[in-house]
Specification:
elongated, 181 residues, Rna Polymerase Sigma Factor, Chain: A, mainly alpha
Length: 181
C-alpha cells in the first residue's frame, strides 16, 4: 500500500494539533473505512455509528502514532476492533469459528470455478452470512485489494491466521453459491 506524501504531512500536522490537517486526513480515509465497516456489518446506520466511534478514537490517539506512514493501517485496525466489538455486543457474532486449528485444516482450492453473472451480483449478500472474522479478511483482500500481509497487519493477526480465515470464508462462500445454483 503506497502512502501519498501529502497524507503523511497531514498526519504529522494533525499530531501537532492542526484541526484542518486532521479534517483532511479523515476525508482521505472516510469512504474506504465506511465501505469496510459497512461490508462487515451489512447495516448502513450501524456502520455510520461505528465510523463515528472510530474517528473519535483516532482523534484521541493520533498523537501516539509513532510512524505516520502507518496511519491508514492503524485506522483500519481501529475500525476492525470497533466493528467486532459492536457486532459481539449486538450478538451478530454467533457464526464466528473460534477454533483456529480447525480453520487451518480447511484446504484451499487452487482451481477457480466460473460462476454466472447473476451469482456475482449476489456476492455482497452471501458474504454477509460469513463469520465476521472471515468476512473482514475477504473484504480487505478481495474488495479493498490489499495483500494478505497487509490484511493480517490491519487485523493484528498472524499471516497464517489470515490465510486460514480466507480459506474458511472462501469455502463458506462456495457452499452458499452451490446452494444458490
Amino acid at each position: 500500500m503506497t502512502i501519498p506524501k501529502q497524507e503523511i504531512f497531514w498526519v504529522l500536522r494533525a499530531q501537532s494539533g492542526d484541526r484542518a490537517a486532521f479534517d483532511e486526513i479523515l476525508k482521505t480515509v472516510q469512504q474506504p473505512l465506511f465501505r469496510y465497516v459497512y461490508r462487515l456489518t451489512g447495516e448502513h446506520a450501524l456502520a455510520e455509528d461505528i465510523l463515528q466511534e472510530v474517528f473519535i478514537i483516532i482523534y484521541r490517539k493520533i498523537r501516539w502514532l509513532e510512524n505516520p506512514k502507518l496511519f491508514r493501517a492503524w485506522a483500519y485496525r481501529i475500525a476492525s476492533r470497533e466493528t467486532f466489538k459492536r457486532l459481539k455486543r449486538e450478538k451478530h457474532w454467533t457464526e464466528q469459528v473460534r477454533d483456529e486449528k480447525f480453520l487451518e485444516t480447511i484446504p484451499v482450492k487452487s482451481a477457480e470455478e466460473i460462476y454466472a453473472p447473476e451469482l456475482i451480483k449476489e456476492i455482497p449478500k452471501l458474504i454477509s452470512d460469513v463469520s465476521p472474522a472471515s468476512r473482514a479478511v475477504l473484504i480487505l483482500h478481495y474488495l479493498d485489494e490489499m495483500s494478505l500481509s497487509e490484511t493480517a497487519e490491519i487485523l493484528d493477526i498472524s499471516l497464517g491466521t489470515a490465510k486460514s480465515r480466507l480459506a474458511y470464508g472462501l469455502t463458506s462462500l462456495r457452499q452458499k453459491i452451490k446452494k444458490e445454483k
